[in-house]
Structure formats: structure tokens, C-alpha cells
Amino acid sequence: MNGNFLPLRREIRDHWTYQDSQYFHLWIDMLFNARFSHQPKKEVYKGVMYTLNRGEFLFSRPSYANRLNVTENRVRKAVELLIKDNMIEVVSSLGKNKPTIYKIINYETYNNSPSESVGTKGFQELSTKSPPSEHQVTTKSPPLKKKEKIDKNEKELIPFVEIVNYLNGVSNKSYKHSTKKTQVLIKARYNEGFRLDDFKKVIDIKTSQWLNDNNMNSYIRPETLFGTKFEGYLNEKPKGKGGFDLSEPSVYDNAF
After folding, report:
1. Which CATH fold topology does 10-126 show?
2. pLDDT tens across 126-137, in order?
3. Measured distance CA(43)–CA(99) in Å, rounded
4. Which of 76-80, 193-197, 236-240 has the highest mean pLDDT?
């Protein structure tokens, strides 16, 4: 091997993933887990057969979070940024509580021999990139010129109705999804990377704890559930009768 080449080029230190150790750990782990062989591989997991081609890997947020010792929220945010930066892409989403197949974009640049011309690229090509903007607009979509259009898109993307209706159905309340304060709280949590399943889980956990408690029942409201304690609630266990932790695994424990 020529001394001008390294398995990881030094320029990787300038890349945005390197600036956050958890993001960098996740990205490198994805590269290790991606299928290296050119021959497709079939894997059977929980009775379902998956086919992985070169550069593809099975991904589950809970699995990666547990294995790398990071929160699911951090994993979710990293994946969103990697997708925005055209570093990975979804090949197949296999459904709720099942892993997703992702593909490393430009996988060949990370795996060819350094003696080959393409081997001088890879991480070097990434070195000048900054973290993709939270509201980055790709070249495939026309730029939004009016604030009204942005607001409209945000309302379409954030499921205010589904979240509040779920809360009302579980708690027998009658909150309105159009309340400005409720939408501000939900949007804030969405900007942190939480999604509909997370809201449902928090609602399930806290209603199981508070619904039949006269002293706590009044706390089952958007201002309490969707505030700054949201992530802490997400990591709690639901309570059964008598206030004991339920022993059944959560739906997140069933994922790959």
C-alpha cells in the first residue's frame, strides 16, 4: 500500500460526523455492517426473509441505540442527517417493529483498494461537508418562497390531529389539536427528532400511571405530557394495577 493512503483519511476529521462522537460511531458502524460481498445474501429473521445486496444493511433504531449505548432520539437524528446529506438511503421499510434496509450511497468509494484511482476518494470527498441544515431543501424540490407555504407543509408533516386524538381516546379527554400552545409543544418535540410512535408511547405510559389517580389525573394534558420532560417520560415503564411496573416488553423491544 502506498504511504499516501490510509484506511481512514485524515481529512475525515473535518467532516461533520467526526465533530460528534456518537454520530461518527453510528456512521462507522453502518459502514462495517453494510454487505461487502457483491453476491446478495438472504437472511431470515423472526420468520421473515430479507435480501441484502452490496452496500445494504438491516437497521433498527432500538438495536443500534442499545448496542452503541446512545438514546434512540440521538440515533434517529443521526439517521435523518445522514439521509439529508445523501450518505444513506432507504431501500425498503419493512413495517412497524421490523428493521429497515438502508443502503450506503457511493459505497464503492469506501471499499475499493487504495491503489485504485477511486480509492483516493471516499472520506476525502466528505471532508468539506458541514452538517446539513435542519430545514435543508434538496435540489429536487423547488424552493419555498412564502412563509405561508412553509407553515402549510409543517402542518402536513406533523400529525397534530393524530397525536391529540390518540390522547383523547386513551384518556377520555377532549383536547383540541388546533390549540396554539399544544401545537408549539408538539412541534418542539418533533424538531428534537421524536415522532408519532414516541408520542403514543408517552401517552400510554403516563395515562397508565395517572388516569386512575385522583391526584394526578389532571396532569394528563398536552402541557404536561409534551413539555421538556417528554424524553424522560419516554424512558419510563407503564404502571399496572397497584402501581407496579408491567413486566411485558414494550413494542420497541420486539424490533431487530
Report:
1. Arc Repressor Mutant, subunit A (1.10.10)
2. 544 556 654 443
3. 12
4. 76-80
